[in-house]
Amino acid sequence: MDCIKYTPEHATEWNEFIRSSKNGTFLLDRNYMDYHSDRFEDCSVMFIEKERIFAVFPANIDRGKGIVYSHQGLTYGGLIMGREINTARVLEAFSTLTNYYKEEYGAKGIIIKPTPYIYSNYPSEEQDYALFRMNAKLISRGISSAIVLNDRIPLERSRRNALKKGARYEMRVEHDSEEYEAFWAILNQVLTTRHDVTPVHTPAELKLLHDRFPDNIHLTIIRNEEGRIIAGVYYYICGQVIHTQYMSASDEARHCGALELLIESIISRHSNDCKYLDFGISTENGGRLLNEGLIYQKEGFGGRGVCYDAWELATQS
């Protein structure tokens, strides 16, 4: 097999491969990945055999640390594989990968974030086995909460009560909203006051990504009876998964069941096309700190555990 560096001239064939892969989502499309290409030094590679791609590895390098990362601009990635690849070939691909980054970049190690299993359209844990075989070290494990849409765990009592309470208010749900600035303002206020952080994306970036992937990225908002936006969810459709990228609710929204109404509206909209709703991780510090209040809220909707892992693979002994 040949391992070659990705360059923009390969964008079309890269994107076509991602769409046909068994564990890739539109986040690995170069039109998504490269919107913030100025922030990272890309060192992605493609595995070629008989002039066909059979796997890719989206990555960037930190020259100062001498570490290659399973792309830091993405929540997950790892080795993205075609359906035809088998376990022996994945083992060979990882051996080739470590040698490539050692020889071409002088890298000391690779941080790998495999795509969580719910995002795969076919079994794809060959790389987990390969990482084990190559003595990779598990360095991070975040816990997310996902709902199985066609076999839901009943809502926790407080969530049911909030829905009933919300029925007494005049709230309007709007799908595919363009109100990015207003949504971001609520989101930013919640994150800064409660968690002392700011959103990763700006309002302009939220709109840019939606415009590039209008079938995959959506903003649903709720207005109160006065027409003011009080809550919203910016979410991704990744194959069979609804992923809530950002959720925000004002103080008013939390007292009238708006968040519960939002989630139920999104599930109703996509339940015939998707299998899971993934709320994202509720952990910090590589998974060693659990935000019990946050995960309690997600589990109240029926979400249960899905792990987001990161492995460190040494390239030099």
Span between termini: 24 Å
Structural class call reads alpha+beta
Instruction: Give the CATH H-level superfamily of the largest domain.
Output: Gcn5-related N-acetyltransferase (GNAT)
What is the CATH architecture term of the largest domain?
A: 3-Layer(aba) Sandwich
Order of helices and strands: EHHEEEEEEHEHEHEHHEEEHHEEEHE
Oligomer: single chain
Morphology: elongated
Strand content: 25-35%
Helix content: 25-40%
* Count of beta strands: 17
General description of the model:
The protein has ten helices and 17 strands. By secondary structure, the protein is an alpha+beta fold. It has two domains: 146 residues, Aminopeptidase (3-Layer(aba) Sandwich); 125 residues, Gcn5-related N-acetyltransferase (GNAT) (Aminopeptidase, 3-Layer(aba) Sandwich), CATH 3.40.630. Helix 3 packs across helix 4 and helix 6 crosses helix 7. The longest helix has 19 residues. It is elongated, with a radius of gyration of 21 Å.
